[in-house]
Amino acid sequence: MTHINRFNRIAHSELSDEGPSKSQRKRESHALQDLGEELVNLAKDALARVPMPENLERAVRDCRTITAHEGRRRQMQYVGKQMRTLDEQEIEAIQRALDVIKGVSKAETAKLHALERWRERLLAKDEALTELLSQHPDADGQQLRTLIRNARREQAAQKPPKAFRELFQVLKDLLGTGSAASETSDEADNDLPEFPTREDY
């Protein structure tokens, strides 16, 4: 369940004529604090793709530079304080952006795992190379054979995995994973919500 869903569910179920209860406000605060921690822990390029007001962005970026435990804890509390100043539309915009980023990350991870499985198969049995070349006839078979042979020797002699890594890069270029991941990222950028302005309300 996303943080915004938690936020909305709590508000819907516990809101009374007298306003939010103390326990409801506490849970909402924790949900927003968790969302703020997600922002702080994002990779730099991913963080740049999340729409947020300037004061929150500054608080998040400052927190990322603090290494001292107590200092980071205090700054994280300040991030949570800034999160609690956001309205529902602003929170939803941030959550949607995070959902898109997580989806891209999962897709890229799946592609890398597929490459790793191909490399393992190529090193385990010769038939795998025949299968790969049948699927990709333009591949440099001699280069692949050399890398596979050298990678096997490295493993047997427990040497640094130079050919092992080169084989992965050749597979990445051959199978187009790099470009596919880039296209996925571009599509995700198009899905990112625009940050709502006050005039939109």
Explain what this protein looks like in three dimensions.
It is a single chain. The protein is mainly alpha-helical and about 200 residues long. Among the domains are: about 25-85, PSPTO4464-like domains (Diphtheria Toxin Repressor, domain 2); about 105-175, Orthogonal Bundle (Diphtheria Toxin Repressor, domain 2). Helix content is about 75%, strand content about 0%. The chain is built from ten helices and no strands. It has helices at about 5-15, 20-40, 45, 55-65, 70-85, 90-125, 125-135, 140-155, 160-175, 175-190. Helix 2 crosses helix 4 (about 55-65) and helix 8 packs antiparallel against helix 9 (about 160-175). The model is unreliable at about 10-15 and about 180-200 (pLDDT under 50). InterPro entries: DarP, DarP_sf. It is found in: Cytoplasm. Keywords: Cytoplasm, Ribosome biogenesis, RNA-binding, rRNA-binding. Member of a network of 50S ribosomal subunit biogenesis factors which assembles along the 30S-50S interface, preventing incorrect 23S rRNA structures from forming. Promotes peptidyl transferase center (PTC) maturation. Belongs to the DarP family.
Instruction: State the order of secondary-structure elements, H for helix, E for strand.
Output: HHHHHHHHHH
Helical fraction: over 70%
Q: How would a crystallographer describe the biggest sheet?
A: none
Radius of gyration (CA) equals 24 Å
The average pLDDT value, as a whole number, equals 80
CATH superfamily name of the domain at 107-177?
A: PSPTO4464-like domains
Write down the CATH topology of the domain at 107-177.
Answer: Diphtheria Toxin Repressor, domain 2
Q: Distance between termini?
A: 27 Å
Oligomer: single chain
CATH architecture type of the domain at 107-177? Orthogonal Bundle
Portion in strands? under 5%
Topology, number of strands: 0
Spans of at least 5 consecutive residues whose pLDDT stays below 50 are 10-17, 178-201
CATH class of the domain at 107-177: Mainly Alpha
Helix-strand makeup class: mainly alpha
Shape: elongated
How many distinct helices? Answer: 10
